[in-house]
Amino acid sequence: GGAKTWIFNATNEFFDGGNALPYNIIGSATLEAWIYPAASEVSDGDRGTVIRINDGAIYLSWNKSNRKISSYWHGKSPAGYHEIGPALDRENWYHVAVVWDGTNLYHYVDGVQYGPITVANSGSSAGPNVEIGMESTGRQFSGGISAVRVYDTGLSASQIKQNFNATRRRYGK
Questions:
Q1: Within a 10 A sphere around the Cβ of 149, how many other Cβ atoms?
Q2: What is the DSSP-derived secondary structure letter of residue 103?
Q3: Per residue in 34-82, pLDDT tens?
């Protein structure tokens, strides 16, 4: 891609953002990034974590076996792992996002909305710690991650589409 990218091609490679968020996420959230799943995995395990917000654990992940975006938010019912939307090809760029609007969960791939899944409860407060690329050795993302965004609100479908369209040419879309 034509943008700055983290390349994760060995186990234990990840970005620890520390307490990067200036807020805790409570009622709704959006996790968004461009991802480039590698041709093969660098570790065993079920998922590759793209973005993890600690102290409440909100996840945007890649399921290594079915190649779908996966999301989890502790304290929601059902909490996850939710996997809606298409299987993604390896060695291609995708704009991915998961959105909780306080009631419903949506997944987005290249600006296309999948869902909703109705979720209950206010969820756990999460933040301010951010990790990109890995939760544990078994949950290592293999490939590229770029243009990471975390919002403390659920973006609308038109806002996600706008973010996709604003950067898509950098990733060959």
A1: 13
A2: S
A3: 999 999 999 999 999 999 887 667 899 999 999 999 998 877 788 778 9
Residue 56 is predicted with a pLDDT of 60
- Which of 24 and 167 is assigned the larger pLDDT? 167
Confidence (pTM): 0.93
Q: Determine the Cα–Cα distance for residues 57 and 24; give it in Å rounded to an integer.
A: 11
Nearest to 96 by CA among 68, 118, 73, 119: 68
Q: Angle at Cα 40 formed by Cα 95 and Cα 81, nearest 5°?
A: 55
Q: What does 160-172 look like in DSSP terms, one character per residue?
A: HHHHHHHHGGGGT
Q: Which residue has the tokens 């987005």?
A: 108
10 Å CB burial of residue 121 (0-12, 13-18, 19+) is exposed
Question: To 5 degrees, how large is the angle CA 6–CA 23–CA 16?
Answer: 25
Q: What is the DSSP letter of 157?
A: H
User: Cβ(108)–Cβ(1) under 8 Å?
Assistant: no
Strands ordered across the beta sheet of 143-151: 5-8, 143-151, 29-37, 94-100, 104-109, 112-118
**φ and ψ of 127, to 5 deg:** 120, 170
